[in-house]
Amino acid sequence: MAYKIMVQGTMSNAGKSLVVTGLARLFAREGYNVAPFKSQNMALNSYITKDGFEIGRAQAVQAEAAGVLPEVYMNPVLLKPVSDMGSQVIVNGKAVCNMKAKDYFQYKTKLIPDIMAAFNYLDNKFDIVIIEGAGSPAEINLKENDIVNMGLAKMTDAPVLLVGDIDRGGVFAQVYGTVALLEEDERSRIKGILINKFRGDKSILEPGIKMLEDKCSKPVYGVIPYINIDIDDEDSLSERFSNNQCTGIVDIAVIKLPRISNFTDFNVFENFGGVSLRYVDKVKDLGEPDIIFIPGTKNTIKDLMWMRQNGIEALIKKANSKGCIIFGICGGYQMLGNLVSDPYNIEEGGTARGMGLININTIFGNEKKTVQTSGKLQRINGVFEELSGKEYNGYEIHIGITGSNKDEDVYNPVNTYSGHNNVYGSYIHGLFDSGDIAYTMVKAIAVRKGADVDKINNYNYKEYKEKQYDILADTIRENVDMDKICKCMGIPV
Q1: Are the beta carbons of 312 and 286 closer than 8 angstroms?
Q2: For residue 466, what are the contacts with CB-CB under 8 A and spacing of at least 6?
Q3: Residue ranges of domains in the chain
Q4: How far apart are CA 107 and CA 101, in angstroms?
């Protein structure tokens, strides 16, 4: 059996995912075989495992930090919102159905055997399993038949670390209120408290920490400082979305769709010198970018209508007519075509006229494609012609079947990549992470503008991510009492 610890938070975005990632890296560096586990994740950022199963992106990141391959057992239940009231339910890596929140609340206990089978697999295979909760364990309306917070802690017999975010204020009330609202047997599972995202002199915090420990009867294991770290975000609470300023010689705009998914596709562009990456959801903020990315979405037709109604679609087409490059990924790629049809109500049904920038049509079928993919890009026309022949790795997550007229060479079913009049599209998530694809693209844009290419530095994205994991692990090591964490897990100190 593995040693185990569960990380819960006082609220969403308290830093649970990052703490799990940092602990996974820390234990892995000490020679342990470590697995992350989240019984139920709700996120639009997902990942496809080597054997074609879909899991939350956060668990893939945590596995990467631990130096192990992501497996479906690390996230047996994934909920992907398709509307304000319902989600696609993915069990053991495969889509089962769409379900309204009320119905899922009644249904979720039926998933306990799947959840425990996944956990038991990890428990037997790995040295350490680090479990991540969701939201807050004190959400009274969700506590009944809980399968992701204290309910899961009981089922796995896991000790709990409670994480509170001090950066947004009110951390003492968050922690005390959370503990106070728990049942006695639940409170007993909390072994320590972590205060996250602290800015300033820790000595000023000491009186508050002492009072918190006295009132909660729980020790504070550490105060983690606010660090500027670049690790893939879990959900739409991402701080990345707040950036809408152009400060570089290459201006990249990503349309912030209401149901945006897998926006981590664009993270690689953030760290090139001379490049600005910004997220835009208002006409007034679009400006005159060099390239516009239309990202993936969990509701293609509805987000297409959103762009059409608020004027963003018209502005994109106008920008393209003036030379702006347009690049769609997955759902964004589907939008670029002539027609998007959902005859089986896979998302919410209906048919919509596309943007008409690429001569393709998309029809949603009943089978979801979830596969890792790799290969060489075939000939690419236009400003990105230097991409021709480059190797890529990535993964596909989509239901739509996309095709074109025979006479129009805009869609390649093997590479799922097209380029025409500086309008491009792809089903491949993670495409830009491959080799120097992203660098080749920004360099081509700079050359096209007559800008100084030397100001755009190239870098190895994989090495960069590994360094970020190490920074996070080092920060936790320096600011958290790891001996106490090991002790509550039963690890010899």
Answers
A1: yes
A2: none
A3: 3-231+466-489, 250-455
A4: 10
Joined together, the tokens standing for residue 417 give: 């990549």
| 424, two tokens | 């491009």
Is position 246 annotated as part of the catalytic site?
no
- What is the C-alpha radius of gyration for the chain, rounded to an integer number of angstroms? 23
Task: Give the residue from 204, 185, 205, 184 showing the smallest Cα distance to 194.
Answer: 205
Partnered with residue 106 across adjacent β-strands are none
The predicted model gives 223-241 an average pLDDT of 77
Tokens representing residue 266 in the block? 């664009």
Please tell me whether the overall predicted TM-score, pTM, comes out greater than 0.85 for this model. yes
Do residues 38 and 131 make contact, with C-beta atoms less than 8 angstroms apart? yes
- In angstroms, the CA 210 to CA 195 distance is 13
**Can you give the length of the chain in residues?**
493
DSSP designation for 288: S
Asked if 429 is an active-site residue, the reply is: yes
CA distances from residue 364 to 367, 398, 436 in whole angstroms, order as listed = 8, 9, 33
The reply to whether 3-231+466-489 and 250-455 are identical in fold is yes
Q: Which residues pair with 360 in a beta bridge?
A: 404
Query: What does the alpha-carbon distance between residue 220 and residue 285 come to, in Å, rounded to a whole number?
Result: 43
The single residue of 330, 398, 420, 488 carrying the catalytic annotation is: 330
Ranking 13-17, 59-63, 413-417 by mean pLDDT, the lowest is 413-417
DSSP class of 426: E
Least reliable range by pLDDT among 158-162, 234-238, 274-278, 390-394: 234-238
DSSP 159: -
Summarize pLDDT for 358-385 with one digit per residue, the tens.
Answer: 888 999 988 899 999 998 888 888 899 9
**How does DSSP classify residue 349?**
-
**Two structure tokens written together for 73:** 């057992």
Instruction: Indicate which residue of 324, 398, 420, 429 is catalytic.
Output: 429
* CATH level 2 (architecture), domain 250-455: 3-Layer(aba) Sandwich (3.40)
End-to-end CA distance of the chain: 18
Helices (H), 95-197: 101-107, 112-125, 150-156, 171-181, 184-187
Confidence category of residue 82, pLDDT binned at 50, 70, 90: confident
CATH fold of 3-231+466-489: Rossmann fold (3.40.50)
Q: Compute the distance between CA of residue 179 and CA of residue 8 in angstroms, rounded to an integer.
A: 11
Q: What are phi and psi of 325, to 5 degrees?
A: -80, 140
291-294 and 339-342 as β-strands: parallel, antiparallel, unpaired? Answer: unpaired
DSSP, residue by residue, 184-219: HHHHTTEEEEEEEEE-S-GGGGHHHHHHHHHHHT--
Residues near 322 by beta carbon (within 8 Å), at least 6 away in sequence: none
Pure H helices in 217-338: 283-286, 300-310, 312-321, 331-335
Structure-token pair, residue 394: 């990535």
By DSSP bridging, strand 46-48 and strand 54-56 are antiparallel
